[in-house]
Amino acid sequence: MGAQVFKPSANSIAHVTILGIAIVPLTVGLSLAALSRSPANTKVNVPKNQPVPFSHQHHSWELGIDCRYCHGSVEKSGYAGLPSTETCMSCHSQIWTNSPLLEPVRQSYETNTPIKWNLVNKVPDFVYFNHSIHVARGVNCNTCHGPVNDMHITWKGNPFQMAWCLECHRAPERHLTKDPTRPDLSPRQQVFDLYWKLQTYGKTGFKDDGTKALSERELQLLKGEWNGSDKPEDIKSGKELVKELGVQVQQLADCAVCHH
User: Fold this and answer.
1) Can you tell me the distance from the alpha carbon of 75 to that of 132, in angstroms, rounded to the nearest whole number?
2) How far apart are the first and last CA of the chain?
3) Beta bridge partners of 156
4) Interior CA angle at 117 toward 36 and 103, to 5°?
5) 3-class SS at 44?
6) What angle, 0 to 180 degrees and rounded to 10, lies between the N-to-C axes of helices 103-111 and 85-92?
7) Under the phi-then-psi rule, with left for phi > 0, alpha for psi from -120 to 50, and beta for the rest, what region is 102?
8) CA distance 197 to 190
């Protein structure tokens, strides 16, 4: 009988090596997947610096300026639009006229050079998204953008990954709703009425007499926490609204809807 070539420990080494070959690729794959969904990649909840430290909380919540004053095309275009320097100066030619923070705005106005805002929310070039369609169906700004009314420096409220979009496209009845207290409003009007309610009743959502003015859904929207409802009564009313608005549910998950 010849001498033993391998030591007994070689078996253990072989087992560990084979196990490593199986585990390492899986671990690397899962790590990359987690990284792709983390704020490091998606930039969700990461404030993005701007040439001017614009605060949505101050302008929208404290001053009550309507979203459409700055985002003028959000109801009629695929692009929500960014405020022109003239829009900013319609107020700031009268107030905070010497503020150092607003020097870029004044320079832009004097030189007729647009301010280069850093886009916070942007879908890839191969994705088609239309703001006006969603607003017309009553999809509130905060549904996608998070609690904008509470943001000092704006951040991305949601990842805008395809799986996230499909959650709504495959079951719009979970997300569409009609305000029972304002049946006179169209879905589009209802979107912006929420911010009027916020100005009128505050963040607690109660009237002066202690009665509730904002529903749980509206409060969740304002906090950026709304992700649809699975309550049977909400699903029923949601399906009725889907039919009323002519939403073609069977087509919403087709590739061609977002990828032209």
Assistant:
1) 5
2) 73
3) 44
4) 140
5) strand
6) 120
7) alpha
8) 10
Q: What CA–CA distance (Å, rounded) separates 49 from 26?
A: 37
Residue 156 in tokens: 């991305």
Looking at 30-164, which runs of residues are DSSP E strands? none
Looking up tokens 């017309």 gives 136
Q: One-letter amino acid identity for 89? A: M
Residue whose pair of structure tokens reads 């990828």 in the numeric block: 259
Asked if 198 and 73 touch (Cβ cutoff 8 Å), the reply is no
Residue count of the chain: 260
Q: Rounded to two decimals, what is the model's pTM?
A: 0.84
The pLDDT profile of the chain, 260 residues, written as one tens digit per residue, is 556 666 766 677 777 778 778 787 777 776 766 767 777 778 899 999 999 999 999 999 999 999 999 999 999 999 999 999 999 999 999 999 999 999 999 999 999 999 999 999 988 899 999 999 999 999 999 999 999 999 999 999 999 989 999 999 999 999 999 898 889 999 999 999 999 999 999 888 898 888 899 999 999 999 999 999 999 999 999 999 999 999 999 999 999 999 98
Give the CA distances from residue 95 to residues 51, 90, 92, 141, 257, in Å, rounded to whole numbers and listed in that order.
19, 10, 5, 28, 45
